[in-house]
Amino acid sequence: MYRYDSHDQTLVNERVAQFRDQMERYLAGRLSEEEFLPLRVQNGLYIQRYAPMLRIAIPYGMLAAYQLRKLGDLARDYDRGYGHFTTRTNLQLNWPKFETVPDMLAELASVQMHAIQTSGNDIRNTTTDQFAGVAEDEEVDPRPWCELIRQWSTFHPEFAYLPRKFKIAVTGAAEDRAAIQVHDVGLRLWRDAQGEVRVRVLAGGGLGRTPMIGEVVRDDLPWQHLLTYLEALVRVYNQFGRRDNKFKARIKILVKALGVEEFRRRVEEEWAHLKDGPQTLTRESVERVAAHFVDPERRPVTDEAIAAIEALRGENRAFGRFMTNNVHGHKVPGYASVTLSLKRSGHSPGDVTAEQMHQIADLADEYSFGELRVTHEQNLVLSDVPMDRLEALWHELEALGLANPTVGTLADLICCPGGDYCALANAKSIPVAQAIQERFEDLDFLYDLGPLELNISGCMNACGHHHVGHIGILGVDKKGEEWYQISLGGAQGNAASLGKILGPSFSREAVPGVIDTLLKVYVSERSDDETFLDTYRRIGLKPFKERVYA
Amino acid sequence: MPDQAPHSASQRPYLFRGQSAVDDWQLIREGQPAAGVPAIVPSTNGSEGERGQGRAPWLAADTELDDALAARLVAAPLVAIDFPKFTDGRGYSLARIAARASRLSGRDSRHRRCAGRPALLHASLWLRRLLAARGPVAGGTPCAT
Ligand code: HEM
Ligand code: SF4
Fold first, then answer.
1. Which residue of B has its CA nearest to A237?
2. What is the pLDDT of residues A66-85, one digit of tens each?
3. Which residues contact A458 (CB under 8 A, 6 or more apart)?
């Protein structure tokens, strides 16, 4: 886990002092609303539908136990006792008092955290694989590279006022768990024949109003040039991205308008000036950062202990379900990653109470070297659990209501805050999520359906990633009423695709029934062990459409 | 105060190479500046005005630099860049490209701009670290462009 040095700490402390001053001037009426807006959004402070919202950065989803404890303190002392993990692996507090935000930022700075660039038209929090550094299928550990990108992009003076927000995702594993194809920039780290790291650079992917899959700008960039190349790429976007229409301002529109060849030509032309310049990475500079991400001292777990866990899995059905769905392979035999499900009926997806944050922090200390990860599916992961402690951990998670054995199933749906909180929403999303979770509660039914991703967004901004859900639900406004459009066939991962709209939208009450019909079509049409997505890709939209609108 | 020099109202003190200096440049958005007044004029105004002493070009945010313009920048006493709104960040990239273009054309802007400057207050975390690691060099802080 990365630890601040004096540069990081000074920068964050200075920012707290600066924002405190800006807030005082605003409250005293010396800064206008309009002047204060870009200042506060660069510190993660939004005005939501009913209250302010503070979005706290969790760089590439990595969180130390002591940090999560502090987040719990903040939720308890400054908010209404809970927080919401987002699809960008950040934490949102939905009810802070405006004037106390500088104090909250000071508390965050005391645990090496901040809310810088969690909003605004700048380079946002970089995201990565939740199993970075422990995945079995990993070629290159993305964490040091994410940290280098964080340092390069934090307060980059040239890129504070881009045409629009800018999101980077990084993966170094065979299976893309970071959705790099639907980001402004996606980076796939790989190793060449000499074992040196190379980077495949994708640009122009994105969701939102005009969803697009990113295109390869450069396949084999040597690692030394990562930052200079990114600088050239973002510079081209900063200069030529559209600024006349905010719906056309993302880089995907520029890449599309120029064509990827012309975009690449401009980037390479700019890069020719920066290549081998002072920002070129040296082995030493990378190693300095990589030293923060060394493996913990893992004690060996005996084969007998592993065998005992496997035996228990067969004997105890509930534990077996947990093992199958929430426990994931690890690069070190005898260890596992465990997903803590933040999807429980009666709770908004991604929500955690202050008390739970404290309890989870204790579990991280107790079972996983004091580290956690936030997933873009809005769950938490303990990434380093010795297998002989899985049973004990499971009991503790059960007691906290965090052991729901539904990770990767329909019940593990992704959902944005929607109309309950968000000022931009066309419709509420949380009640839809809850209605679906309630209707499809039966575990055997969920397991029979197999891997199924259902994503809900309250508006076109697509914070709930509805375009890449196998089933996507989008809130739309029809003459002031809340309606829901359903799409099928979206997917993240290596074979990413964008969902196709099923047809006319539905009322909120109708949505669970429509989902039910879609699932019935799948169950009756599937062959062998086809997943929902497989079946959809084979038979297409038509059979689903015919049944739903029959 | 009609009998005062037209530019005195905007004289702003600033630091240059560690010395206090005064910025008495006038920005003339339209029309012709008065003779003898140091003036920044739109670069599209034609090059005549700039060539003489005390005329500097003002670049629109969407300026795309070509060789001819770069050559004019080299000859200019200073280069100004328009920020139509402060949330329009194109000027930052243009500044770096323009500075580079002048440097490439042989102007020693690197040392002139950097010598004796304070720490980069608004530099990225990465640049801060980079500059700290390199330490002071002869002639001032190294540029990161
Ligand atoms: C406290 C205020 C400021 C200080 C102390 C400061 C200081 C500096 C310094 C020392 C450099 C030199 C970097 C280099 O040589 O590479 C620089 C570059 C630059 N500054 Fe500032 N600056 C300030 C405010 C601003 C503002 C308000 C803007 C824009 C509205 C701005 C835009 C730029 C740009 C675009 C460069 C890059 C030039 C280049 O790299 O070629 N600065 N600044
Ligand atoms: S998708 Fe729309 S409604 Fe949902 S959080 Fe994003 S902006 Fe708000």
1. B90
2. 999 999 999 999 999 999 99
3. A416, A417, A418, A419, A422, A424, A425, A426, A427, A428, A429, A464, A475
